[in-house]
Amino acid sequence: MNLINMLKAFLKTLIPLFSLIAGGLYLDSVFFLDQFNHGQEVATFLLWAIFFTLFYFLPSRYKEQMFYAVLIGVAGEYLFSLGLKMYQYRLENIPHYIPPGHAIIYIAAVYFNKNTAIKLHQKLIEKIFLAIIIVFWTYFLLFKNDVFGFLLTAVVLYILHNKPRERLFYYTMYLVVAYLELVGTFYKCWEWPPYAFRFIEFLPSANPPSGISLFYFGLDLGCLWLYKKRHTVAWNRMKNVRYIKLTKPL
């Protein structure tokens, strides 16, 4: 029964998310361009429609975090893509479907990790996810000379080593972002240069680099920080309740 519930958690969150990534990015791909010249506009309509549907049904706490994810996503895209030239989109713009996409990815990972069945098997899932990350990371280093991605992943794993509460969430984000990047670069929706930031030649990079989820962590932490600043009293109350539960004698 526990296994069935765990599979249901995947089917309700990550599987639909992976399907949306594959289908949504296909609309903006060079493959779809041969059939229809306005795929990016269709993808934009689809992603915003899904965003507002989720926004309507979610509790107010998550609505607020989705809003923050869009704001931080816009700022991050302009900084890293147009400003620092870390990567470039197919039309050399920031597609309008990208900001709601950030928010949808964020909230799907949140709901996956708050599922009861996932929490019950957290340690097992962490080990499985970590094994996949290590295989992915090693393959990209050995066969794609992805030194940049190797260093980014090393930083991710180092940070999470002493963060047991957040570990599964960020492992989840790592794998979701890795899948997103593989699909997006395969479809040629965007591309990464052969070196980190285009000019750091001692840091060769794959297209995509394996550990790019490190930069997505800024979005996650930013959403949480903004929420805490807006709800300081409620956040401190929750922390006190959690502390009491952890220190309560058995």
UniProtKB/TrEMBL annotation:
Transmembrane helix among keywords: yes
Organism whose genome encodes this protein: Paenimyroides viscosum
Residues that span the membrane, as ranges: 9-27, 42-59, 66-88, 94-112, 124-140, 146-161, 168-187, 207-227
Protein name stated in the entry: Uncharacterized protein
Keyword field: Membrane, Transmembrane, Transmembrane helix
Keyword field contains Repressor: no
Domain of life from the UniProt record: Bacteria
